[in-house]
């Protein structure tokens, strides 16, 4: 049993009401379960495959879900990078290993299932790329049409390719993500499409399972969870999941929620560092990490609470720091991620250097999307392959000249 509750004024709404903002105060809604009537047996969970649906008692879906087998992503120990920056217990949860290559699949398996449960016949989103790729795939799986709005010229190639190939109606708007989200929100309210951005409280329910999996994989709570922040939905979702487990008595410690943004798009970092009650939007967000090129994060209120209540923090990293860490993850650990994802680990490096992070901490960075999402940014950083004649002497002389 669950209901929708306004995170601002606490007004309650029935679970089957299609609503994204409180009609009293305009704030976002969250899914609230009757936790006192739920008992969780960790052993029962452990008998199920590691996946979003392992945790179905804490998810709102009651129909057979629309699934592509999402979740169950690897948790890697970052031994070399950890040693370099002086963190023996540094881990990366590779969300790029989901069906469409990003953590958004956890949200969409739940969100698109809820669309069917609520008898909606079409879905829509605005996106910096990954949300659109994921929605397009899950809508295809569900057999319903999807409309996606992208900021023109600012979405990585692999993500556009996915949205197109999975058959969504893809529209590029001459404006940034924040404007695209306003437009699609209006479209959904006026024309009845089901909105699957992170203003949708059900989508975030799926994403909270990142944290649940980390607990199961690590066998304990990490001291700190570090996430790249764009719209601030994911960090809020993971925190909400931990709060639920704490309530159920199965959490052995609340991780410090830590958010990392790109320096050119860092309104949450500014609000945390300056102690502001609310985020002041960044009117012209800019970063190579286009996934998190978001100036007005809609979940900021939830994210500020998550960071503050857990004694976490927020930090900004430059594009150079992001790309350097993308290369380090790829070349020193064998882990291929897109720039936004590298931001989380780059942020940890910075926080260690500035003494904010204690070297004894067990830290899990969520790396949110796969390397192949943004091949153009990869190619720009690498030397082109040397083209040679098709004979052995040419090969040997080429190998000699590059060694
Ligand atoms: C790789 O796809 O907002 O803070 O429209 O793709 O929950 O927004 C993507 C966000 C981090 C930030 N890493 O998560 C979209 C979109 C990657 C992302 C984020 C995104 P939120």
Description:
It is a single chain. With 403 residues, this protein is α/β, with parallel strands linked by helices. The protein has a domain of 206 residues: Rossmann fold. It is built from 15 helices and 13 strands. The longest helix has 15 residues. The termini are far apart. The model has no long low-confidence stretch (mean pLDDT 97). The site of ligand AN7 has 21 residues, from helix 4, helix 9 and helix 13.
SSE arrangement:
Layout: E1 2-6, E2 12-13, E3 29-33, H1 42-47, E4 75-77, H2 79-85, E5 90-94, H3 104-117, E6 123-126, H4 130-142, E7 146-151, H5 157-165, E8 169-173, H6 177-191, E9 194-195, H7 201-207, H8 209-218, E10 224-228, H9 233-247, E11 256-262, H10 267-273, H11 300-309, E12 313-317, H12 319-332, H13 339-353, E13 363-367, H14 375-381, H15 392-402
Parallel strand pairs: 5-13, 6-7, 6-9, 7-8, 10-11, 10-13, 11-12
Antiparallel strand pairs: 1-2, 1-3, 4-5
Bound molecules: ligand AN7.
């Amino acid at each position: 049993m669950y209901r929708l509750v306004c995170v601002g004024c606490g007004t309650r709404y029935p679970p089957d009401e299609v609503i994204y903002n409180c009609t009293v105060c305009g704030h976002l809604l969250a899914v609230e379960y009757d936790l006192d009537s739920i008992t969780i047996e960790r052993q029962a969970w452990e008998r199920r495959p590691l996946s979003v649906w392992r945790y179905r008692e804490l998810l709102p879906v009651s129909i057979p879900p629309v699934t592509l087998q999402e979740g169950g992503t690897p948790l890697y120990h970052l031994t070399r990078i950890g040693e370099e920056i002086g963190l023996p217990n540094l881990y990366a949860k590779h969300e790029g290993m989901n069906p469409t290559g990003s953590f958004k699949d956890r949200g969409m398996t739940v969100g698109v299932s809820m669309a069917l449960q609520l008898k909606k016949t079409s879905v829509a989103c605005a996106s910096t790329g990954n949300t659109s790729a994921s929605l397009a795939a899950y809508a295809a799986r569900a057999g319903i049409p999807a409309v996606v709005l992208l900021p023109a010229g600012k979405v990585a190639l692999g993500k556009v390719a996915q949205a197109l190939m999975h058959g969504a109606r893809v529209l590029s708007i001459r404006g940034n993500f924040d404007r695209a989200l306003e437009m699609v929100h209006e479209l959904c309210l006026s024309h009845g499409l089901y909105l699957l951005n992170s203003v949708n409280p059900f989508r975030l329910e799926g994403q909270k399972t990142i944290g649940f999996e980390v607990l199961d994989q690590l066998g304990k709570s990490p001291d700190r969870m570090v996430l790249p922040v764009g719209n601030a939905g994911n960090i809020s979702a993971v925190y909400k999941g931990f709060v639920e487990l704490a309530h159920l008595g199965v959490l052995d410690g609340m991780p410090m929620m830590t958010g990392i943004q790109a320096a050119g798009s860092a309104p949450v970092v500014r609000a945390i560092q300056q102690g502001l009650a609310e985020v002041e939007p960044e009117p012209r967000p800019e970063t190579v990490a286009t996934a998190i090129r978001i100036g007005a994060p809609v979940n900021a209120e939830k994210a500020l609470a998550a960071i503050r209540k857990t004694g976490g923090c927020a930090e900004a990293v430059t594009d150079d720091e992001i790309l350097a860490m993308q290369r380090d993850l790829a070349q020193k650990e064998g882990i291929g991620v897109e720039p936004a994802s590298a931001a989380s680990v780059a942020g940890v490096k910075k926080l260690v250097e500035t003494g904010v992070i204690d070297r004894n901490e067990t830290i899990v960075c969520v790396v949110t999307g796969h390397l192949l999402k943004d091949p153009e940014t990869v190619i720009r950083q690498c030397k082109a392959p040397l083209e040679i004649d098709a004979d052995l002497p040419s090969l040997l002389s080429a190998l000699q000249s590059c060694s």
